[in-house]
Amino acid sequence: MKLGGSVEEAYNFIMNDLNLKYGDTVVAAISGGPDSMALLHLLMRVKLAININLICAHVNHNTGRIGQKEEQLYVEKFCKMNGVTFETMTIENYGDDNFENEARTKRYNYFESLILDNDAKYLFTAHHGDDLIETILMRIARGSTLRGYSGFSKIVDRGKYKIVRPLIELTKEDLIKYNKAHKIKYFIDKTNLEDVHTRNRYRKYILPKLKNEDPNIHQKFLKYSKTLLEYNDYIDKLVVKKLKNIYVNNVLNIPKYLKEENLIQTKIIYYLLEQIYQDDLMLITDRHAEIIHDVILSNKANVRVHLPNNIQAVKAYDTLVFVNIPEKNNDYEIELIDSVNLPNGKNIEFVDSINHNTNYVCRLNSSEVKLPLHVRSRRDGDKMSIKGMIGSKKINDIFIDSKIPTKERNLWPVVVDSDENIVWLPGLKKSKFDKPKEEKCDIILRYY
Question: How do the domains of the chain map onto residue ranges?
Fold first, then answer.
């Protein structure tokens, strides 16, 4: 199995391995950055060779970043000059979810609508070898499924179309060299240099260290990814056979599940999560699998836990099902990982240390709460055991005492653990779970 490659090998892969025919339609996700402009140029060469219908899909994320509109106009002009169909959409507003996750969801929903409307065979993206390294490292650090640890695949079958990443064997440096050789202009998103996003920190600080050790480290990660996928696919075949008897009509039979070995039990949960989240596995950690397994083992007859993207795992006696619960009005619930952009415009982030001890900081001991933590909107009947007080108090009464306007209450964040204990009302009240600075704590949250 040959690893690594050149842009020409990526071209040959597209021409020879994808069964593209004259007149076929493909969609390419193009931002205007060096990676995507190299991909666009590559696909233009394919278009010249076999006359495919190439659609460039550009998304303006509308974040206020300087140069976004200029970038969009440049890509549009580039397409017009080269006979490429240009399509674009602007994300007008962001709702209740984590910004990066929501932006990605809106992006891919748009791409899919273009694909289905135009009966396209493929969606091409410009993910490359450096992206693969970053994704694998981030998932190792957070925990994931076996497939999740592999990063992402070169080809993903979505049923009616396939996502193809032909540049996966190349580095960003390879693509920049290609652009320079062909005099292709591209834009640099300066927000990619900021430390606020996790991926940026891996890109700035960890990836260069790895490349200092081995300039071809991306090839090693690619081999790692392919090896994991091969093992995962083999085990999946065993799991699929098991599921015919254990998971029928989207219902998990708990007694039959519990008869399997631990490895198969774990892989069954991972497999189901992979089917639900597909290419969004960055949202899932091994902790989610543990939580679901704990629900299955629970002595309680009826239990439900919240998962990312409004999915709930619901146990009812001897069965477990996964259901999608649409959000209503201003309702939201987000798992707390790294940092979260909140619907009220504020943020909550994990920090290593902080000096002050106001209501904008929460210190917790993980042994006293059920992880993971979530931040959500208030619910009817919410009560909180306030630090230093006997008994509990209604969240609504806290809002009234604090003179919080009614219109702000529905979006005010409420931090809960996985047992629905309210552990913090950011900016207003600490709970009995909050620890003084001098006591042991291994979770520190900041609200700003």
Answer: 7-128+165-213, 333-447
